[in-house]
Amino acid sequence: MITETDQNYLKETYALQLEHDHVTTSMLADRVGASAATVTGMLKKLAERQWVAYEPYKGVTLTETGRSIALEVVRHHRLLETYLSKALGIPWDKVHDEAERLEHVISEYLESRIDELLDHPAIDPHGSPIPAHDGSIRESARLHLTDVRAGTDCEIVEVSDRDPGLLARLDRLKLHPGTRLQVLGVEPIDGLITLRVATESLVLGSKTASQVIVRIIKESHHGRVQQHH
Amino acid sequence: MITETDQNYLKETYALQLEHDHVTTSMLADRVGASAATVTGMLKKLAERQWVAYEPYKGVTLTETGRSIALEVVRHHRLLETYLSKALGIPWDKVHDEAERLEHVISEYLESRIDELLDHPAIDPHGSPIPAHDGSIRESARLHLTDVRAGTDCEIVEVSDRDPGLLARLDRLKLHPGTRLQVLGVEPIDGLITLRVATESLVLGSKTASQVIVRIIKESHHGRVQQHH
DNA sequence: TTCGAGATTTAGGTAGTCCGAAATCAATAT
DNA sequence: ATATTGATTTCGGACTACCTAAATCTCGAA
Lengths: 229, 229
Ligand SMILES: [Mn+2]
Ligand SMILES: [Mn+2]
Ligand SMILES: [Mn+2]
Ligand SMILES: [Mn+2]
Known about the structure:
Helix content of chain A: 25-40%
Strand order of the largest sheet of chain A: 3-8-4-5-6-7
Number of strands of chain A: 8
Bound molecules: manganese (II) ion
Strand content of chain A: 15-25%
Number of helices of chain A: 8
Oligomer: homodimer
Structural class of chain A: alpha+beta
Distance between the termini of chain A: 38 Å
Largest sheet of chain A: 6 strands, antiparallel
Order of helices and strands of chain A: HHHEEHHHEEHEEEHE
CATH architecture of the largest domain in chain A: Roll
Number of domains of chain A: 3
Radius of gyration of chain A: 19 Å
CATH superfamily of the largest domain in chain A: Ferrous iron transport protein A (FeoA)
Largest interface: A-B, 19 and 19 residues
């Protein structure tokens, strides 16, 4: 039997694998809100069930089975966020926490009703791709706003859905998926980024900018895009 | 902390108190799907937390606190059933199981959004009253179709939401809350009840008829309504 | 190459929910 | 009044998910 806890561990492992090439016990402990000791125990259990490959002291990787369990939960999560936002008019900084609990209890039947009613949406309110029913998902390379050179034109693709405070602020600044912007300058010491959005300019800290994923529309002439990490 | 299990025990105790004047361990065991031994243990815990009054070998009663916890869950359940039915078009024999899981995880915020969108509904798809936000509820006397004399005109008020098979059948027979009917005859041995609904007549067994709650529109001239039990 | 520091695992334990089997109780029939 | 029986509780045990503290491992700095 797959418990809600199993689903959360697998989902967070999936998310961490997208951002890091090595997923550790402590990273997972941080995400699921449990102690490292607890995570070690759970990883042994998940490995026994063949949902992850686990090398003590090394790290953890999802198996194919584990990945599809994770994607099923991610699909629920993102469909629910989209539904709550569009059908119930719930603001985008409140949908995540609600979906976090609902994702584990909706039936496949309800999932498909929601999917139909929304006309099979491809992205959620934060710009994240919604896995298809068959588990396929478009996992494009993720370019963080912190890694964009000055002078570049881009469009926001996705923002992190975890922090309501961040989302409320981005909303006030009119920074949403789809928003066009130009990077005016990057301050090298503190990483402050100056942007032009429509006709206004504004400054973001690197903590905020690192939560924003963009795609480049017109590259700066002065050099190449920096690599993250 | 109130767990999902706590909520289920309290909710079922509430439901049983409406139908019986004495709620026993085995009745609860049957409803929550656990052994009598398990229920005894849980009742001790619930009594310790002052959610029920529990007399070993005697039975169990909700305290005021226990009742309001139960009504909160019942409100979630019935609002969700109504929403799933009206907004998502889910058939009335499928909404119960879905609501059974969702009821424990929706926030007060989502509850109120749903309530607003439905314009503060008073009854759910099965005719059961939805407790108000403040916990008030119209608990009218419940007259079962099995207790109605031949010759009486009535209207269906409520049907049990637990059994999808029953609901599917009632739907096929066009027996819904609001449906008018006349009891043509009651067969004394097997309890078969003959009804006239619109222009057609049909026969129900007592198992089915006992799940239907009615209110009398015009009493038979030949005597009084029988008492249940 | 050795030595820590920090990450991780192991050990020992709690809380919650469940079970079957055995013991006990309460109510009824004799 | 007593025996029987069905309901209920008690007992011993299982399983999951969590914790802290102690032991152990890994890897980079010296
Ligand atoms: Mn979750
Ligand atoms: Mn999202
Ligand atoms: Mn429930
Ligand atoms: Mn109902």
